[in-house]
Write a structure and sequence with these properties.
The chain is mainly β. The chain has a domain at 236-335: 6 Propeller (Neuraminidase). It has one helix and 41 strands. A five-stranded antiparallel β-sheet has the order 1-5-4-3-2, with no helix packed on it. Strands 6-7-8-9 form a four-stranded antiparallel β-sheet, with no helix packed on it. A hairpin with an 8-residue loop joins strand 40 and strand 41. The protein is flat and about 65 Å long. The model is unreliable at 1-25 (pLDDT under 50).
């Protein structure tokens, strides 16, 4: 491996932490740097300008990191022009091909980061296939059986990594498709037929798949759930309304779905998949946004009042034990109620109202203003839930600054400026241990400056790259 300064003129197109054997969470970094059309993977530390090249340079496509940030998968074209799947082990410093001689269109990690699924397509035979490969190499295994996924690449693994759902186009009508579920322990797919499936998602905790589908002979999409046993799907929404979107709760038990605006004004419903009981989110009208708390016990709904002549929005809070009511508004009327942000524990919600920052305590159901000195444009919680990082407008210049807002009792708070001014959009992110902040100052759509700040010592700014694009801290708790 070679060393070089991270201040060399290259473009960092990905950035994450990869913990060493004894490294603390958020201590090390892995970079994807780019010079010209080639990329390389490098190891670094946020306090040093030195990096170690561990893979590349090569033209990388479709880069995907594991949840813990210790491995990177990417596609690269060989001398024959066919794309292969590469896996870079950040800790071991290795780069291997795991897809054999298959021509790959897409790749996706299993949730545990030990295996990968990749999709292939034979243009001559017009035959698609999905394979499963180990991150350490070996012979890939066919998991789509004799079914033909075609050019479809929307396959998804269950949360436990045991099952795979993928689309199967109708050979007689390419506008329609069913889907299949494969038990990866047997590699045998089971097709779910009779419904034109449009989109699907696994429960985060259970082997249950939810999907929007159009029954044969119908034109409307309805919400269904189906188990891995392949028995007939169960329709979730009992009314005639068409389902536009749905989302699982983080605990995997409840589904919330939104129906078409007419005749029910775009209302939202919630259903308990264990009991089948469902209820409308009372008091909601034209639903604009719905956000679960991380524990799946609480939620907020942002809606608009169809009876108002102005484009106003209302923010409401609810929980599974206390359904929404007509007087459950946190913000009854606002022209700019945006940027909903839950704390990691799910007991606090930060939101903006016309650039003013509020925090809702879900235990007391009371919201308090915690900052209105500067205009807040974006915010994120420190992992311990006791402080917020905010991007704010400078009071005198047309520029942005970073501030940390420490929360105190009874809605009291203090703020601390931790950066100079930036005349470009900012994307900040806490390290998993809450000790450092990674900031991307976007100079253009393609390039940004990557810096690391220590909130306790703001003067200790570390410039990782003068040209960067995207990235985040890893590994995060998962």
């Amino acid at each position: 491996m070679t060393e070089r300064s991270s201040r060399t003129r290259g473009v960092v197109v990905g950035l994450l932490v990869a913990a060493g054997a004894t490294a603390a969470c958020g201590e090390n970094l892995a970079l994807i740097t780019q010079v010209g059309k080639l990329q390389a993977v490098e190891r670094a530390q946020p306090t040093s300008t030195q990096t170690q090249v561990i893979a590349g340079p090569v033209a990388m496509l479709a880069e995907q990191w594991t949840h813990d940030g210790t491995k990177l998968a990417y596609l690269a074209n060989g001398q024959d022009g066919l794309a292969s799947v590469h896996v870079v082990d950040i800790q071991a410093g290795t780069d291997i091909i795991v897809s054999g001689d298959h021509h790959v269109m897409a790749v996706q990690w299993t949730p545990d980061g030990k295996r990968l699924g990749f999709a292939t397509f034979d243009e001559e035979k017009q035959q698609g296939a999905i394979y499963l490969a180990s991150s350490t190499g070996g012979t890939p295994v066919l998991v789509s059986g004799t079914l033909n996924p075609g050019l479809s690449v929307d396959y998804v693994f269950s949360a436990d990594g045991r099952y795979l759902a993928f689309g199967v186009p109708d050979p007689a009508d390419r506008t329609r498709r069913t889907f299949a579920i494969t038990d990866l322990t047997t590699q045998q797919p089971r097709e779910i037929s009779g419904i034109n499936a449009m989109r699907w998602a696994w429960s985060p905790k259970q082997p249950i798949l939810a999907f929007v589908g159009i029954p044969n002979g119908d034109k409307k999409g309805f919400l269904y759930t189906v188990g891995v046993d392949g028995k007939a799907p169960v329709q979730v929404n009992k009314g005639p309304e068409e389902v536009l979107a749905f989302e699982w709760s983080p605990n995997g038990r409840h589904l919330v779905y939104r129906v078409a605006p007419f005749p029910t004004a775009g209302r939202a419903y919630i259903v308990d998949t264990a009991t089948g009981q469902s209820a409308i989110l009372h008091g909601t009208a034209n639903v604009v946004n719905f956000v679960w708390s991380p524990d799946g016990q609480s939620f907020v709904v942002k809606d608009s009042d169809p009876s108002s002549s102005r484009a106003v929005e209302r923010l409401r809070a609810g929980s599974l034990t206390e359904p929404l009511t007509g007087d459950s508004w946190i913000v009854p009327e606002s022209l700019g109620c945006t940027r909903l942000c839950w704390s990691q524990k799910g007991d606090q919600l930060a939101f903006l109202r016309d650039y003013e920052l509020f925090v809702l305590d879900m235990r007391t159901r009371k919201a308090a203003s915690v900052h209105k000195v500067l205009k807040i444009e974006a915010m994120s919680w420190r992992p311990d839930g006791e402080a917020l990082l905010a991007v704010a407008g400078h009071p005198k210049e047309r520029a942005l600054v970073l501030i940390v807002i420490e929360l105190g009792p009874n809605g009291q708070s203090t703020h601390k400026l931790i950066s100079g001014t930036f005349r470009c959009p900012l994307s900040p992110d806490w390290s998993p241990d809450g000790k450092n902040i990674l900031v991307f100052a976007h100079l253009s759509k393609e390039e940004a400056m990557a810096l690391v700040f220590d909130p306790a010592n703001p003067e200790n700014e570390v410039r990782l790259s003068e040209h960067a694009a995207g990235g985040s801290w890893y590994p995060r708790p998962w």
